[in-house]
Structure formats: structure tokens, C-alpha cells
Amino acid sequence: EAGVAQSPRYKIIEKRQSVAFWCNPISGHATLYWYQQILGQGPKLLIQFQNNGVVDDSQLPKDRFSAERLKGVDSTLKIQPAKLEDSAVYLCASTPGEMNTEAFFGQGTRLTVV
Amino acid sequence: AQSVTQPDIHITVSEGASLELRCNYSYGATPYLFWYVQSPGQGLQLLLKYFSGDTLVQGIKGFEAEFKRSQSSFNLRKPSVHWSDAAEYFCAVEEEYGNKLVFGAGTILRVKS
């Protein structure tokens, strides 16, 4: 079974530039999450999708971050414009959507804003 | 709101020694609890989980954890640490409804030979 795929693995941009990350969850997984992991901290949920609908985006800085999951499969997370404090690892995870199931994580995208 | 506290930022143990990583949670209802491990440059891998039933749960790689409701704790243990266990360990609690994980800040484990 293929795991959660993310790209790119690394990205360096200047502040005020825009950037996009891509995630392909495990086939058949209805629920998809984006987490932000700042150095020295645990992952923090940014947004949760159930199929192609948003379940929770309360922690997403909507003035600069956006995410979509068209067709309920792949997802993209965009930052525009980026700030220095956005430097972090962005992790994508997926679950089948049922309760009591394990979340599978991708390897993440490490973003450095300079 | 739920929260997870991992009191130890770094822990160093000798190879072959026993290990205990501490985790305390704040959650009103019955928690769903997890331990994940993250090696450098990798995503998070689930070590074990507790939903209900036996309070001592076994996981992969020889890890176990014990849920103690009276202490709001879910400490991770391993009787004999291997050099390959060096990584960062995260404790997490899941909301009863919503499947959202709240993570602690992590504990970095160093293993000395």
C-alpha cells in the first residue's frame, strides 16, 4: 500500500513570495489533514478535510493560507505572501474517515522563508 | 481544550538501559491517546494507541505505554533501548469526535553507546 505522498520535500523562498505544497493521501482515505510543525514544537493542525469539504479550518491563518481538496483526493496548501514565521515542516496526513483509526503521515515539506 | 504536556525536552540513555518518556494530558472525557515517533527528515510513525480496555498497551519496536486516568498520564516505556531508537517522540490526544490530534512538544531521545 502506497503511503501519503508529499512534494516538494524542501522549499526555500523569500518573504512575501508565494508557495504551494501538494499532498496525495492513501487511496480511499476520506479524511485529509494539514499540520504545521515549527522547529521544537509538536505538529499543529491547520485544516481538516472530509472528502472535498472542510471540517475544521479554525487554526488556518486565512489571510495568507489557503487549501483545497478538489475531487476529494489530492490537496494543495498555499501560502501567499509568506512570512519568516511560516518556516516549518508542513505535514499531510490521512485516515479512512472512521473513528478509532490511525492517521498516516507523509514525510513533510520543509519550508524555509528567508 | 485538550492539551498534552511532555515535560522532558531531551533525554539521554545508554544503549541497553530502560526508557520512560512522560506524557500528561488534559481532556475532560475518555481520551484517545497515541505515541508517534519521528526520525530526522521523516514523517510520524505510530508506535501505539489507547482507546479503551486494558490500560497497558503494547506497540511496535518493543514499546509499551500505560494509561493512568488518576494521573492523567500515558507514559511510554521500553525495557532495553537500542541505538536505532534515537528519534523524537510525540504524545498526542484525539478528540472523541472529529479525529483531530493534539500533540505535545515532543521529547528528543539520544542513545549513547
Any chance you could write out the topology, listing elements then pairs?
The complex is a heterodimer of chains A (about 110) and B (about 110).
Chain A: E1 5-7, E2 10-13, E3 19-24, E4 31-37, E5 44-50, E6 53-56, E7 65-68, E8 75-79, E9 88-95, E10 104-105, E11 109-113
Parallel strand pairs in A: 2-11
Antiparallel strand pairs in A: 1-3, 3-8, 4-5, 4-9, 5-6, 7-8, 9-10, 9-11
Chain B: E1 3-5, E2 10-14, E3 19-21, E4 24-26, E5 32-38, E6 44-50, E7 56-58, E8 64-68, E9 73-78, E10 87-94, E11 101-103, E12 107-112
Parallel strand pairs in B: 2-12
Antiparallel strand pairs in B: 1-4, 3-9, 5-6, 5-10, 7-8, 8-9, 10-11, 10-12
Q: Would you kindly provide a brief summary of this structure?
A:
Chain A is an all-beta fold and 114 residues long.
Question: Main β-sheet of chain B, in a few words?
Answer: 6 strands, mixed
**Which spans of chain A of ≥5 residues are poorly predicted at pLDDT below 50?**
none
Structural class by helix and strand composition of chain B = mainly beta
In the residues of chain A, how many domains can be counted?
1
Sheet with the most strands of chain A?
A: 7 strands, mixed
- Residue windows where pLDDT falls under 50 for at least 5 positions of chain B: none
Oligomer: heterodimer
Features:
heterodimer, A: about 110 residues, mainly beta, Immunoglobulin-like, 7-stranded mixed β-sheet, 4-stranded antiparallel β-sheet, 11 strands, B: about 110 residues, globular
Describe the protein:
The complex is a heterodimer of chains A (114) and B (113). By secondary structure, chain A is an all-beta fold. Chain A has one domain: Immunoglobulins (Immunoglobulin-like, Sandwich). Helices cover 0% and strands 48% of the residues of chain A. In chain A, strands 2, 4, 5, 6, 9, 10 and 11 form a 7-stranded mixed beta sheet that branches. A 4-stranded antiparallel beta sheet of chain A has the order 1-3-8-7, with no helix packed on it. Chain B is mainly β. Chain B has one domain: Immunoglobulin-like, CATH 2.60.40.10. Helix content of chain B is 0%, strand content 52%. Chain B contains no helices and 12 strands. In chain B, strands 2, 5, 6, 10, 11 and 12 form a 6-stranded mixed beta sheet that branches. In chain B, strands 3-9-8-7 form a 4-stranded antiparallel beta sheet, with no helix packed on it. A two-stranded antiparallel ribbon of chain B has the order 1-4. Classes of the chains: A mainly beta (114), B mainly beta (113). The interface between A and B is medium-sized, with 25 and 23 residues.
